[in-house]
Amino acid sequence: MYNILGINKDSRKDVLGMYVSQSEGANFWLGVITDLKQRGVEDILIASSDNLKGFDEAIRTIYLHTEIQTCIVHQIRNSIKYVASKDQKAFIADLKLIYRADNEDQALTELEMLKEK
């Protein structure tokens, strides 16, 4: 089951839909996005996904200007697969300093320090 959550301009979270599929792919997501449009979702400012192939294209077929981001959990999972298991705990601690930074400058500084390590 795939749950679609939305946050409106007033920071109110809503479940926009629940969809069941044997597998996910571009056609599945295009159907989901089409259904959301037909049910009244006017615009999607930012979409977060697990970087599924075809997801970006499916959203942009209907919502041309949507900013698409990879979810932070998936970014971390993708990052740690390149780090030796004995170093992963320290790497994750350093990585948290980047995505928990208060501003872009601080995040860039933390990223630079991680690169040096």
Task: Give a brief rundown of this model.
This protein has 117 residues and is of the alpha+beta class. 47% of the residues lie in helices and 18% in strands.
Describe the protein:
It is a single chain. The protein is an alpha+beta fold. 47% of the residues lie in helices and 18% in strands. The protein contains five helices and four strands, in the order ββαβαβααα. It has a two-stranded antiparallel ribbon. A two-stranded parallel ribbon has the order 3-4. A hairpin with a 5-residue loop joins β1 and β2 (13-19). The chain is elongated. The model has no long low-confidence stretch (mean pLDDT 90).
Keywords:
18% strand, two-stranded parallel ribbon, 117 residues, single chain, elongated, two-stranded antiparallel ribbon, alpha+beta, 4 strands
Q: Uncertain regions: pLDDT < 50 for 5+ in a row?
A: none
Q: Roughly what is the average pLDDT, rounded to an integer?
A: 90
Tell me the β content. 15-25%
Return Rg in Å. 17 Å
Q: Work out the number of β strands.
A: 4
Distance between the first and last residues' Cα: 40 Å
How many DSSP H or I helices?
A: 5
Order of secondary-structure elements = EEHEHEHHH
The largest sheet is:
2 strands, antiparallel
Structural class estimated from helices and strands? alpha+beta
Strand order of the largest sheet: 1-2
Silhouette: elongated
Residue share in helix = 40-55%
